[in-house]
Amino acid sequence: MELMVDYIASLDGYGAAEGWPGWWGLEGPEYLGWLGEDSAAHRTLLMGANTYRLFHGFAASQTEGVDELGAVQKIVFSSTLDEPLEWENSRLIRGDAVEAVRELRETSDHPLSTIGSLSLARSLLSAGLVDRFRVVVFPVITGKTGQDRIYDGYPDIALDLIETRTFDGGTLLLDYRPHVLDAPLPPGPGSA
């Protein structure tokens, strides 16, 4: 089954920023509509403990665009959380996430998607398990307040573009097919 890494990011590659609201306060109706249509309802969401706590908090406060995630199947990889998990439709897996996801790709009835969970996504990309890499870039730079730099510690990855879309307010969807590289790409034609 397909596995997608799915992020939201500032233009400078942060997943969050101190003092800024979720989606940097720029979640327009067109983006939220797409989010509802794209809905994780057709996927099983994979996340680590920190992302679970964050999104469960958003869902509990009925943050628009997150509240419908209660009905979605969620798998949480953690050694710090205990069962039973509070958020409905959540299952806890302890142990090696890469091996568990390798098995899930073979047995799942639904496509798999990470949500946030930087360390989990990095390990799945490094293991070559990711079929799609999707990021929604919000038109802000949060260099002073940015937290959670998304790409630090990642392997080198070539990305083949599958789809782009611009939402209200200049928010940009970029959807790629990733290829983990053993070495940087050689110079192309016309490079100096």
From TrEMBL:
SUPFAM superfamilies: Dihydrofolate reductase-like
InterPro entries: DHFR-like_dom_sf (IPR024072), RibDG_C (IPR002734), Riboflavin_Biosynth_HTPR (IPR050765)
Gene3D superfamilies cross-referenced by the UniProt entry: Dihydrofolate Reductase, subunit A
GO molecular function, one term: 5-amino-6-(5-phosphoribosylamino)uracil reductase activity
One example of a Gene Ontology biological process annotation: riboflavin biosynthetic process
Domain Bacterial bifunctional deaminase-reductase C-terminal: 3-172
UniProt name for this protein: Bacterial bifunctional deaminase-reductase C-terminal domain-containing protein
Organism: Acidipropionibacterium virtanenii
